[in-house]
Amino acid sequence: MKAAASSVVADSSARPAATTTATGSAVSGKSSYSFVKYHGLGNDYFVLDPNQTGGSNIPPSQEVQRQICHRQYGLGSDGILFGPAPNHVLPDDTPAWRALASAIAADTKSADSKQSSQAVQAVQAVQPPPFVLRIYNSDGSEAKKSGNGLRIFSRYLYDTGRVQLDVAFRVQTLGGCVTSTIRRVTAPNTKPTSAAAATAAATAAPAPAPSAVMNPATELEISIDMGVVSFWSADIPMSGEPRSSLKHTFTLDGKEYQFSAASIGMCMCCCGGGGCDLL
Q: How many other C-beta atoms lie within 10 A of the C-beta of residue 201?
């Protein structure tokens, strides 16, 4: 994970060790779910694709998700990636998603009022709608964003033939819309012997059809533009008057700690104590 002044980009070579996959099905009560399991740098998720299970845009209940993710009594994972939503439709089963849909609609209406309908249609033709992804923690609570989760989901979209190499695409999460790009990288200890060989390597093995089996050995680099980093308290959010979220202190059991917080659609907090300043 690399932080820039205005954005955070998650990069990975996506080698077999970073994108190990498994396929299977899980049964809980009367429900059956097909899944693919990936891990990115050890952060593992199940991908549940609603398009492969009858097109329902309704995720498993929190209780079912907890059962699936349980390390001892279930299949075990850090969470569940539910997507892409059929027909790119935003869910409307929670207040947070309804609020996001209203905000997006308002932004779209504002943009339409500033452009001719032909111009709007031209932009939409060039920029297809984003894939909609819901991210769940192992306890069934819904997360806004996850860098590793988004890289895993991007790889899944490629493995199922929905996106192409070197063509940026968007993913809509509860924490905002991000942009992902997937590129092929040269495998270790292998070098094309000629320009013709390099061209052949770059054009070989097109993305498989959606029903194809994943190929975790493919060497890829996945970059995610996570959006603008905010160090403003209201964006975290933090209580009290609006202010910088850097280098605050709190006392716990008579010991003083320093913390700093940031948000890129999901909030993070770094704490240090005993004279250790993390920032």
A: 14
On whether both 50 and 184 belong to a single domain, the answer is yes
**Where does the pLDDT of residue 159 fall: very low under 50, low under 70, confident under 90, or very high at 90 and above?**
very high
Strand arrangement of the beta sheet that strand 248-252 belongs to: 248-252, 255-263, 267-273
**Domain assignment present for 278:** no
H/E stretch holding 267 reads strand 267-273
The rounded mean pLDDT for the chain is 76
Q: Which domain holds residue 261?
A: 233-273
Quick one: 174 and 245 in the same domain? no
Q: Which two tokens stand for residue 147?
A: 């860098």
Quote the pLDDT of residue 212.
Answer: 40
Place of tokens 């063509």: 167
CA distance 84 to 105: 20
Whether 37 and 132 map to the same domain: the answer is yes
The closest of 167, 154, 164, 159 to 208, measured between CA atoms, is: 159
What are the tens digits of pLDDT across the range 31-44? 667 889 998 888 99
Q: Is the pLDDT assigned to residue 256 strictly greater than 50? A: yes
Question: Do 149 and 43 contact (CB within 8 A), yes or no?
Answer: yes
Residue 13, pLDDT above cutoff 90: no
* pLDDT greater than 50 at residue 2: no
Q: How many structural domains comprise the chain?
A: 2
Q: How confident is the model at residue 27 (pLDDT cuts 50, 70, 90)?
A: low
Contacts of 178 (CB under 8 A, 6+ apart): 145, 150, 170, 171, 224, 225, 226, 227, 265
**167 and 88 assigned to the same domain:** yes
- Note whether 42 and 12 are within 8 A (CB): no
Q: What is the gyration radius of the CA atoms in the chain, in angstroms?
A: 21
Q: Please check the confidence at residue 215 and state whether its pLDDT lies above 60.
A: no
6 plus 124 within the same structural domain:
yes
